[in-house]
Design a protein that fits this description.
12 helices; seven-stranded antiparallel β-sheet; two-stranded antiparallel ribbon; globular
């Protein structure tokens, strides 16, 4: 395959056009359930001896805790980089290769030809049912206070007590993930390098590879890469999110309630959003507390080929 940095250079010089066609948005909705206490911290407004050492991040108006989309997205990218062996000892992974799952989904700082970042993760807001439950249990501040001590391994004595805020186990947040789908096509222009030159040989190499390049850049590959989002959620369930996961914090469960496809026609006011019938593909959803129903990331992954085809059909609808 031609090096995509070279393709970008030829595009920049006017030998090829890059046409990026927006095909629609895949909307994933669900819930995040805290299985253990969750601490995604914010900076303390003031630090006093005997006071709280670490606060959870909160909405500045409602004071309710939330799970920042940036924290979830960053954790997911980090774990997938390890899974796909993209981690370097010296720098964060970023490349121009459109077949790179990580950069195509989460974005790259390199000069790229495959368009914008695909995934967007919104801040996960505390559900109304969880808010009411916490308040009914006297947790009007929506958190529990966790006291920890440093244990001197020589004397066995507890020292230096610290106080942390945590969202308690059993709390639900609303999860929304948007996944943008594009169809990218590279085509040659009327401009050509001088025949016989070294640049012309490279140009011809790209021309002869256009079909393969465009296949990688196609909408179908965008949809195929959606599975990595669910892989990321699955790994997060096992390794946790937020601070102090090595001490038992931050274990969560994801419940996928629906996958909705909004094709281009939806945004042109010519068509409707199409909800993928997950129950038909996977089977009945599992019911959680408060009557929430949905499927786990592993259920989506085990049935992804069928789900993928339904999504492609929906995006192709007029």
């Amino acid at each position: 395959m031609v090096q995509h940095e070279k393709v970008y250079d030829f595009v920049k010089e006017g030998y090829f056009n890059v046409n990026i066609f927006f095909k629609g948005v895949i909307v994933i909705r669900g819930k995040i359930k805290t299985e253990t206490g969750l601490l995604i911290g914010s900076l303390a407004e003031e630090i006093e001896i005997g006071k709280v050492d670490q606060f959870v991040v909160r909405d500045p108006i409602t004071r309710k805790p939330y799970v920042p989309g940036s924290s979830l997205k960053g954790r997911m990218r980090c774990l997938l980089e390890y899974k796909y062996e993209k981690v370097s000892s010296f720098e964060v992974h970023s490349c121009a290769d459109p077949s790179c799952e990580i950069c195509r989904i989460f974005g790259s700082k390199e000069n790229i030809i495959y368009g914008p970042t695909r995934v967007g993760i919104f801040d996960a807001i505390l559900t109304e049912e969880s808010r009411k439950e916490l308040e009914s249990k006297g947790l009007g501040n929506y958190v529990e206070m966790k006291v920890e001590n440093y244990i001197n391994r020589v004397t066995g004595r507890a020292e230096a007590p610290r106080v942390f805020e945590r969202v308690p186990a059993g709390v639900f947040f609303n999860l929304t993930i948007n996944y943008n789908v594009f169809d990218v096509k590279i085509s040659k222009t009327d401009k050509e390098p001088e025949k016989g030159s070294e640049k012309y040989e490279k140009y011809v190499e790209i021309v002869n590879s256009l079909d393969k390049i465009n296949e990688v850049l196609s909408m179908r590959v965008d949809v195929e890469y959606l599975k990595h989002v669910f892989e990321g959620l699955l790994i997060i369930e096992d390794v946790g999110i937020g601070s102090s996961v090595s001490r038992g914090y931050g274990r969560v469960k994801f419940i996928i309630e629906e996958i909705e496809v909004r094709p281009l026609s939806y945004y042109q006011s010519k068509g409707n959003a199409i909800r993928i019938n997950l129950e038909k593909i996977i089977g009945p959803p599992v019911e959680e507390k408060f009557g929430y129903k949905g499927w786990r990331p592993i259920d989506i992954l085990r049935n992804f080929d069928k789900i993928k085809q339904e999504i492609i059909n929906a995006l192709s609808s007029e």
